[in-house]
């Protein structure tokens, strides 16, 4: 009888340890369905210039964008925690080159998107991307 209790205790401890390890590993790689970044992404741009482009193109009229004064749009998705997102527009992996492509030509990634082509240069797109990747 004592042997059976020890075995049950060890089994419970092992299950608890396994569950805890799974939670820790899972939370290290994914946060609320979004990939957790353990490093800064180099988008090839400048986040401060990105703010200027975001303001110039009035991105806040469609999006809510943390750190951008008056950016409270509700047409497009809020860009909160953008750096932790796994996908861009649910279509492309959230990677600097894909984000720059999306910002320059949204329809090249999602043909039926409501996101307009804003006529951004590649450098402007990389600057905006650099800012978006600061939103963790």
The first-level CATH class of the largest domain is given as Mainly Beta
* Shape call: globular
Provide the number of structural domains: 2
C-alpha-based Rg, rounded: 21 Å
- The first-to-last residue Cα distance is 54 Å
Instruction: Give the SSE string.
Output: HEEHEEHH
Main beta sheet strand tally, sense and closure = 2 strands, antiparallel
Q: How many beta-strand runs?
A: 4
As a percent range, the share of helical residues equals: 40-55%
Average pLDDT, all residues = 83
User: Strand sequence of the main sheet, in spatial order?
Assistant: 1-2
Secondary structural class: mainly alpha
Figure out the total of helices: 4
Could you tell me the CATH topology label of the largest domain: Immunoglobulin-like
Name of the CATH architecture of the largest domain: Sandwich
List the helices and strands and how they pair.
Elements: H1 2-29, E1 30-31, E2 34-35, H2 47-56, E3 87-88, E4 92-93, H3 96-104, H4 122-132
Antiparallel strand pairs: 1-2, 3-4
Helix pairs in contact: 2-4, 3-4
Describe this entry's structure for a reader.
With 136 residues, the chain is mainly alpha-helical. The chain has two domains: 2-31; 47-132, Cupredoxins -  blue copper proteins (Immunoglobulin-like). It contains four helices and four strands, in the order H-E-E-H-E-E-H-H. A two-stranded antiparallel sheet has the order 1-2. Strands 3-4 form a two-stranded antiparallel sheet. Strand 3 (87-88) and strand 4 (92-93) form a beta hairpin. Helix 2 (47-56) crosses helix 4 (122-132) and helix 3 (96-104) crosses helix 4 (122-132). The protein is globular and about 30 Å long. The protein starts with a helix and ends with a helix. 20% of the residues are buried. Residues 15-32 have low confidence and may be disordered.
